[in-house]
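Table S2 (continued). Query chain:
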Amino acid sequence: MARKTRRANGEGTVFFNNTINKWQYTFPLSSGKTKTVTGLTQKEVIIKRKEYFKNQKKNNLNQKLTLLEIITDYVEYKHSSNVTNDNSYLTDLDTIKRLKTANFIEKPVNLITIEELKKYLSSISKYSKSIIKKDWSLLKNGFKIAQDKGIINYNLMDSIEIKKPRSIKKQKKVIALTLMEQQKFVEVIKNLKKEHEYQNIWLIMLYSGMRIGEVLALQKDDINLTEKTITINKTLTRDSNKSVIVGETTKTSAGERTIRITATLEKVIKKSIENYKENENNLIFCKSNGNIITGNMVNLALKRFCKTNDISLKISNHILRHTYATRMIEAGIPPHVLQKLLGHEDISITLNTYTDIFEKYEKSYDKIIQEYYDKNNLIVEKLELSNIVKNELDNIYEIIYISHINEKHKNLLNQDIEKIKEWYNFL
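Corresponding output:
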């Protein structure tokens, strides 16, 4: 026989169930149904009833949570717990601003339809790969959080119908200074009557491939002239007020690296250290008042300098980095080595960024392979002299094609090669 204790105001019945030897609490729900909780003591079942309604209230609130609220809370949490720095936080806020254009972003997340999501994803294909990646990442995290909280049973982002959009925006080709432009750039700097305040910054980028933010964040302790190394472990960034500051890390984890100081780079580094002015950030490069030099200041000065000296109108800080990478490829540096020098997180970034340049030079390896086979007597039949000459002329063609000689002179050289071919009866 169960002992019963009735509760007032329609709160249900608390009783001891002799059959199971435990206390139970049966109480009505707003739906008209009843709910029973079980415990070892009367106090325990009363507490369980309170917890049940508390959780129901929380769940009801969760059911009203919008995707915008979930994503915003996630971004704020990452920033407050130092998972993201101020600059990344500002980037996340920009992404949220963009996501607000989606007509579903302020709907309760459990009411969003797959068609609404597909429509938005289709609309962002006009943006760059970088923008699409940011939008996709926040949406994916937002829906995953909603699923983890039990707000949604199925994550729409996991649907086979949902695909990360491909950018239709035409990617800018990597531009680098030609050999002649670089020679002129260096020559003009060499012959300056008075040093340009930013010339050493430009030359460090040109001879090391460092990002502008990495160069401007260099401190004397980062330079080891005995070991001839530069330790790159920070970059300029923005704080939450969008002011430029010296960050505590590099752009990516792969950006933290140590590079060698070549003989050419050493001269520039030594001169930069000689010009060091005391400043609160211990930066090698700073303004005369000790304030931070921004990348934009250096970029504008570089454009004016090159325009004045008729070097190249298509110039920027980043083009100096691209020029370094191009010269390295021309010199035969393998992609995986270049990846480390540039601080790329993945080798695919290096290969995709410089694919045209790598393709231009990969044919030059044919000659290296052929010479290796010849030298080590690995060929079954020796090539006839005429075939050897033909291969050599083809290699010359390739060298002319990828050279920085102007088109007029290229045409003259190609005409001479045609005459040589006629002499060897190749045509």
